[in-house]
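Question thread 4412

I'm putting together a teaching handout and wanted feedback from people who do this every day. The idea is simple: show students a protein as raw sequence, then show them the C-alpha cells that encode its fold, then repeat with a second protein so they can compare. Below is the first pair exactly as I plan to print it.
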Amino acid sequence: MTQDVEMREVLVASNSVSSSVPLTFQNLKEIAALIEVGAYAKEVRRIFHAVRLTISLRRKLKTSIVSAFLNLVLVPGSEAHSRLTSYLPKEVVEDMEIDTATSAAQGSFKHSLPEVEIYCHLLVLIFLIDHKLYNEAKACASTSIARVKSVNRRTVDVLASRLYFYYSYVHELTDSLAEIRGTLLSLHRMATLRHDELGQETLLNLLLRNYLHYNLYDQAEKLRSKVPRFEAHNNQQFCRYLFYVGKIRTIQLDYTDAKDSLLQAARKAPISARGFRIQCNKWAVIVRLLLGEMPERTVFMQTGMKKALKPYFELTNAVRIGDLELFKNVAEKFESTFSSDRTQNLIVRLRHNVIRTGLRNISISYSRISLIDVAGKLRLDSSNPVADAESIVAKAIRDGAIDATLDHASGFMLSKETGDVYSTLEPQTAFNSRIAFCLNMHNEAVKALRFPPNSHKKEKESAEKRRERQQQEQELAKHIAEEDDDEF
C-alpha cells in the first residue's frame, strides 16, 4: 500500500510539469516511475506493465524525446548516458520545451537503479531498430547484453528477456545469426544458473530459431532434449516453443506429434498475433495432408487469413482430388510462396499422397481396371507408366491403403467389395482420438488456472487488509487479461 501511495505521488509530481511537454515524453516519465516502484517493492508485474506500455509507445518515439528522457533519468557524463547518447542520430533538437521541462524535474528523477538503466538500453535499442539503424542497434544490443550479465536481480529478468529477443532480432535482420549462437548459449547457461525461468524460455526459443534458420534440425532437437524442463510461465514463449517443436517433428517425419504441437500453438496464440497464427496454420495444413487427413474448409476461411492461405487451399484441393497434374501446376504456380515459407521440401513429399489418394478413388470407382488406364488416370509421366502403375498399386495394397488384388498376368487391378465401415475399428479409433483431444484440452485448462496469492488462508482480516487484497486481485485480473493481448 505504501508503494502505491509513493507511486501516485511520483505521478502527480510528473503531471505538474508544464503542459507543453509532449504526451509521449510524459508517458516515458511515468514508465520510469513505475519501474522504480516495481524495483523497490520487488514486484515483477509492474515491470511487465512498463514493458507493455513501452511497446504501445514505440511508434511515437523521436530522437529529441529519447535524448531528453536519457538526460532525465541518467546522470549526464556517466558511462551509460554517454554510450547510449552516442547511438542516437545526430539531429538538431528543435523542441526546447522538452529540455526546459527536463531540467525542471531533473532533481527528483536522478537515480542509479539498474532496472532503469537497463530499461534505457531497451528503449534506445527499440528506437534504433524501428528507424532501421541496424549497425548502431547491433552495437547497442551488445552493450546491453554486457550490462545485463553484470546484474543478478529478479526484477531485471523481464527487461533482460526483451533485450535477448531484440538482440537476436537485429542480427536476424542483418543476416548474422550465426555470429551470436555462442553468446546465446552462454546466456542460457547463465539464466539457468540464476534460476531465471523467463530468460530460459526466451533464450531457448531464440536458439531453436537460430538453428532452424540454418536448417540445423538435428542440433535443435539435441538442444531441446537436453535443456531443463519446467512449467511454462509466459504464454507467448510457450506458443513459440510449440511452433518450433512442430517444425522439428515435421522434418523428422513424426507427423502426429507435429500436428498436435502446431494446432496447439495456433490455438493458444493471441488473436492479435495474426502472422504467427498464419504460419502455424500453413505448417499444420501440410502436416495433416502428409498424414492423409483433409483440413476443413473453415481453416482457410478464418478472418484475415483467407489470402495468405489461398496457395495451401488450392494445394489441399489438388491432394483431395488426387490429380497429379493439378498438383504439379499448383506447386509451380506458388513455388515462390512455398519457398519463402520454407515448406518446399514438404510439398515434394506430398506427391506420394496425391498418387495414393487418386489410386484410392480409382479403387472405389472401379471393381476391375487395367494398369494402362490406372497410369492414364494418375497421369504418370515416366518412361514406362504401366510398370510404375503396377509398383504403385502393389505398394498401396501392401500398405493397406486400398483393398484390392493385382493380376500381374492380365495387367488388371481387382478391387474388393467395400464392407460396412462400422464393422471395423475405424469409428472406435476416431472416437478415441476425439476423447483424447478433449481430455488434453481440459488438463491444459486446469494447469492454466491462476489464483491470488495466499488464497488458501481463511484467516480473519481487517477492513483495510480486505481493501488492499481486493485491489491486488483487481490488478492481478487486469494483468492476466492484458497478458494475451501483449505484442507477439
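The second pair follows. I'd like the answer to focus on this one:
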Amino acid sequence: MDPSDVTYLNAFDESNERDIPDFLSPATVPIPNNLKHVNYSSGSLRMDVPKLKLSGNKLETIDFSNNILYALNGPIYNVKNVKVLNVSTNFCSNISKFFFSSDFKNLEHLNFHNNLLGIVLPDDNEGKILNNLESLIELVLSKNRIPNLPENIFKSQRNLQKLDLSENMFTDITFRVSHMTHLKELDLRGNRITIISDPFTSQFDSLATKHNFSVDLNKNLLECNCISIKFIEWMTTTNVRLKNIKKYKCMLWNRTIVALHSPKETYNLLRKHCASYENLELALVLGVLLFIILIMGSLMYRYRWKLRYLYYIVKVKYSSLHSETEEEYSYMYGAFVSYADEDRIFVHNTLLQKLEVENGIQLCLHKRNFLPGNDIATNITSAIHNSRRTLVIMSHNFLKSYWCMFEYNMARMESIYERRNENVVFLMFYEQMSPRDLPLNVLEMIQSKSYIEYPNDEYGDTVFWDQLVNALT
C-alpha cells in the first residue's frame, strides 16, 4: 500500500509539530497546479480532518462551509498561498494546537462562524491554536457558544483588522486587544455582556487614538446601575465608535429596560440615584462599624482585667518563659501587701513587725520594694507575680483607691490564669464593712474564699496573727 494513500484520523494530540512521529507520513492530496479556488460548501462531507499535505498548488481560497468537519486535527502542509479559509457551519468542536502549521503564514481571512469552538478555545491559555496566523486580517468566531477567552489567545494577531465574536456567551471581556494596533472593528453583538471593566475600556481607548475603532454591543444585557456607572460614563466620553448605539438597551436598578441611545442622559439619571444610594450605603457602613465597635468595646470592658493582666505579665515574664514548674518556682517574696496609703501606719508599724520581723515572712511593700523608673502597673504586676501570696488590707480607703483596686484585680487574674485557681489572694478586713459597701467582684471572692477580720481584743489579736501567719506560709 502506498503511504500517500493512507488517512490517519484522530491520530494527534501533541502541542507542537515537532512532536508528531516521523513514521506517520501525511496523506498527499493532489491539487491541479494552477487551481486558485476550492469550493466544497454543502458537500455532506463528514469527517475529522487528519494530517494532510497538498501537492504543489496556487490555492488562494478554500471553502468547506456547511459540512460536518467536527474535528480539525492536522497539521495541514503546503498551503502557503491560501489567504481565505471558510469552515463555517461544520459542528466543529475541536482544533488541535498544530492544525494551523507554519504553512498558513499568509492566511488573511478565517471564518469559523456557527461551530462549537466554545469547548476548546477557553482552554487555550497560551494562544497556540492561532499562533502561526500572524497575517490574519479578519477572524470570524461568531455563534460558537464561547463563554470566555484567555487573555493571550490572540497574542499573534497583531495585524487583525476585524474580529467578530457576535452571538456567543460572553459576560465580560477578558482577552487582550491592545496589541492589535490595526484593529478597526470588534463585533460583540448578541452576547450576555452587562459591563465592560476599566482595564478593557482603556484598551479600547488606546486603539481609538490610533485610528477609527468601533465596538458593537447591540443585543447584550447591559446594566445601568451604581455598579456600572463608570462604564456608562465611559460611553459618554470615549472616542470609540459605538456601532448601532441607537439600538442599545439596558436594565435599570429597578429591573426596568430602557433605551441607551443617549448615554449622557442615562449617566445623569444614575448619578442622581447613586448619590442617594451612596449616602444610604455610607450610613449602613457606619452603622455596622458602630455596632462592631460597641460589641468590641463591651467585650474589652468585660475582659478588661484579663487583658490588662496579660499585657503587663508579658512585660515581666522571664526570658525562660516559665520553664520551671509551679513547685520548682522560687518566689522573691512571701506576700505582696496591697493597702491604701491611709492605712500605711498599721502596715509599716504593726503588720511588718508581726509578719516579717517576728515570723520571717518576706513582704513586698510598694513604698519599699518597687523599682524606681518602672511604671506603676508593671511594678504591681511584677510584685504580684513574684510573691507567693497577695495580702489585701481591705478598708473603705482601699475601695476608693484606683491603684488598690488595680492591685486586687491583677491578683485575681494571677490566681485564675497563672496559678491554676490556687488561693493566692487573701483578704484581711481592717475595718468593719457592710456587704452593700463592697463591689461585686469583692463580694464574689468573700463568698467563695476564706477571709479574716482584724480583731479589737487582746485574745482575738493573738489568734488573728497566728491564723494570718498560717495562711501566708
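Top answer:
Good format. For the second protein you could add a caption like this: Confidence is low (pLDDT under 50) at residues 1-23, 318-328. The longest strand covers residues 387-394.
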